Each structure stands twice: as C-alpha cells, then as structure tokens.
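Narrative summary of target 7.
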Amino acid sequence: QVGVVESGGGSAQAEGSLRLSCVVSGDTYAHFYCMAWYRQAPGKEREKVASVDSDGIIQYADSVKGRFTASKDNAKNALYLQMSSLNPDDTAMYYCAAGPTNAYGTCPYKYQYWGRGTQVTVSS
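Modeled conformation, tokenized:
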C-alpha cells in the first residue's frame, strides 16, 4: 500500500521561509513517480504549486516562481519544497501528490496518491 506523508509546515512571518518535505513509501518503483505540491486555502480552489516529472523537470505556478524551489530525491522517494519570501497569500494547507506516469510517459492529470496535508500559515 502506497503512503504519502508530508511534514515541515508551520507558521512564519512575511518574508520568512519554510521547508516542506514529502516521502512516498510502499512501492519499489516510487522513485519513477511524478510528484507535486498542491495547496488549498479556505474558500479557494486547489492550486498546483510545483511538479516534478520522472525526468526531474520541474514546473512552478506563476504565483510562486522565484520564491519557491522544489527538489526531488529519488533515493529517498522524497519531494521537498523550499519556500522563501513568504507572504500571507501563501497561507494554505499544502498537499503532496504522487503517482506513476501515464501511458504517454507524462505526469498524470490526476495523481493517484495524496498525503493528508500540512498547514502553512504566514502572518504579516
């Protein structure tokens, strides 16, 4: 059974930093997975923050470009999100998603495995 666990959320002041971690377990091929960070603030739609495909190519939402850095450690089946220059608009529950590539070798539109989320709160 595949498990996804996030950690590292918490509170920060505006312009501060936080680092999120996500570890996938339960599949010997998990290091080939696509992985992504999503976030959802109260009353808002879920937003994909960053994604990393099986080749290590990273994409970011425009709202976090230049401030957030995602990285993947295949040996640990882990995905990280270094968040800097935080602002109150970054306040949300952050979720890690993971899953195998689709039949075309690209990341799935809907990820198969999700963590329970970790809260990030940024105060001004």
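The mean pLDDT is 95.
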